């Protein structure tokens, strides 16, 4: 019996040293990506996908009025349409996450395509428009294979899904609110979108959850407190990626790859 204690002690160290593993475990369930914050506190994270859009300004006003900070998972091609919104979101004290460059599903993409054309290209565009490259990645539609997730995690990215889809893009906002009232749990990550319905839904969610004693936190804030800064890792200095980039831009021919 006396051997059990040291073994348990060593196991604890191993788990601790394993870094993010602990963040992604809920009870006995292990996951390779983040669905919910592991916490006993009454925390809630608001995530707003697919912007910037024509509605992002109104969403920012709602958040400011209610003194709530959120995570905006932006899309590169949408930043191209509303480049000035990057700074407006950041200046509001919100966090920007990487929701890919094209919003194409990762389903048929190679690891190389995802890393170079979606993740790094997004962060480059973010930086160009005054944002800080981020390690927070939400694959389009929440879809990524375990291999794709592993590849990105090995390079220092956090893969963020959600615990509760409000279905704001499909349902009347009243139904989305009911869903939050019924199913939200401690540490839940709510999924909303940069659409008109969110402008009505957000104040109601904030009012309801505040009344029930919830605190609004951001992913970066939570991860930083756990010792995992949300800044993007240093880029891999691989000439292969760089040459492929040149090829995609049309500066070099396929034979030169
Ligand atoms: Zn999306």
Question: Treating each run of at least 4 consecutive H or I residues as one helix, how many helices?
Answer: 10
Order of helices and strands: HEEEHEHHEHEHEEHEHEHH
Average of the residue pLDDT scores: 88
CATH class: Alpha Beta
* The CATH superfamily title: Glycoside hydrolase/deacetylase
Q: The biggest beta sheet, please?
A: 6 strands, parallel
Please give the alpha-carbon distance between the first and last residues: 61 Å
| Fraction of residues in helix | 40-55%
At CATH level 2, the architecture is Alpha-Beta Barrel
Shape: globular
Strand content: 5-15%
GO molecular function, one term: hydrolase activity, acting on carbon-nitrogen (but not peptide) bonds
Protein name: NodB homology domain-containing protein
Pfam families: Polysacc_deac_1 (PF01522)
InterPro entries: Glyco_hydro/deAcase_b/a-brl, NODB_dom, Polysacc_deacetylase_ArnD
Give a quick summary of the entry:
42% of the residues lie in helices and 13% in strands. It has 257 residues and is α/β, with parallel strands linked by helices. It has a single domain (33-256), classed as Glycoside hydrolase/deacetylase (TIM Barrel, Alpha-Beta Barrel).
């Amino acid at each position: 019996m006396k051997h059990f204690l040291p073994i348990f002690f060593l196991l604890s160290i191993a788990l601790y040293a394993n870094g993010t593993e602990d963040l992604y475990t809920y009870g006995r369930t292990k996951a390779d990506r983040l669905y919910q914050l592991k916490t006993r506190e009454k925390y809630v994270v608001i995530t707003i996908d697919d912007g910037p859009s024509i509605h992002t300004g109104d969403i920012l006003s709602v958040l400011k009025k209610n003194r709530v900070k959120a995570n905006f998972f932006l899309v590169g091609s949408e930043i191209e349409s509303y480049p000035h919104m990057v700074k407006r979101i950041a200046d509001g004290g919100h966090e920007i996450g990487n929701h890919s460059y094209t919003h194409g599903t990762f389903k048929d993409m190679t690891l190389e395509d995802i890393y170079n054309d979606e993740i790094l290209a997004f962060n480059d565009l973010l930086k160009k428009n005054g944002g800080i490259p981020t390690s927070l990645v939400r694959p389009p539609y929440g879809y990524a294979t375990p291999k794709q997730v592993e590849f990105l995690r090995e390079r220092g990215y956090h893969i963020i899904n959600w615990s509760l889809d409000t279905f704001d893009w499909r349902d009347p906002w009243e139904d989305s609110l009911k869903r939050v009232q019924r199913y939200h749990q401690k540490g839940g990550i709510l999924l909303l979108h940069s659409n008109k319905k969110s402008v009505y839904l957000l104040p109601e969610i904030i009012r309801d959850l505040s009344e029930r004693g919830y605190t609004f936190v951001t992913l970066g804030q939570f991860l930083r407190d756990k010792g995992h800064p949300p800044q993007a890792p240093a880029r891999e200095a691989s000439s292969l990626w760089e040459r492929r980039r040149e090829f995609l831009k049309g500066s070099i021919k396929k034979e030169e790859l």
